[in-house]
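Notes to self after the Tuesday call (sharing in case useful).
The group wants a holo model before anyone commits to mutagenesis around the pocket. I volunteered. Ligand is phosphoenolpyruvate. Logging inputs and output together so the record is complete.
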Amino acid sequence: MIRKKICVANWKMNKNFIESNDFLKKITQKDLSSNSCELVICPSYDSLFLFNKLNPQLSLGAQDVSYLNSPSSTGEISVDMLTSHNCKYVIIGHSERRESLNETNESVSLKMKEIYNSQIIPILCIGEKLDEKLGKLTYKVLEKQITKAFSKINFKSEKDVLIAYEPVWAIGTGQAAGHNEIKQNMKLIKKIINNIYTNNCNIYLLYGGSVNENNASEIINIDNVDGFLIGSASLEVNSFYKIFKQL
Ligand code: PEP
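Result:
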């Protein structure tokens, strides 16, 4: 099946619910109809409820989910809670969480297991750090992140999964990876996926790392790039909208 391109906004810990509401009011005044691109907003948890009354041309995602399935888990948010907000997507394994909050390949695999059996589509973030890239460890790192993330699930042919390839050194730096590097690493990811799947689910690949209105059209045309995961350039209505219009 040919899927639309996907443009995901990761707002991180930006925008309280008043600011989120303001963004939503502005963006929904624009023409969001598109046959070629799905727009997804991942606000912080406290703004999820704003989307319930929103226009069907915007999909909703969360930035994380708990793998604990006991209610005795203070401060955690379950897959069921995200489902009740009509979340279609959830990000897992973002490098900022791996770096600052002890997210490991093991905890990512537990989250993947929780999500995989729900209606929600995971957006699995993977990517190498600068020293790993320089040490020519990119393939090893990506292979480990992907293999481990899927190690606890039984594949279903009808399930969609998005993998966001985000070189850590390109996130928030203004320095996106180059054309050839993205092309080569997307190819590596395809190879890793093909090696581990006997019973394929539907995998789509996003690129993330300093995507903006000036580099979006070049990157989206690289082989195997099905969309973007966007941080900084998703915070401002006009820049995010300009990227969307190029997809
Ligand atoms: C991100 O944090 O996932 C990201 C891609 O950020 P930025 O677009 O700001 O590099």
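Two things stood out.
The pocket of phosphoenolpyruvate is lined by residues 10, 166, 171-172, 208-211, 229-233 (CB under 6 Å).
Residues 5-244 form a domain with the TIM Barrel fold (CATH 3.20.20.70).
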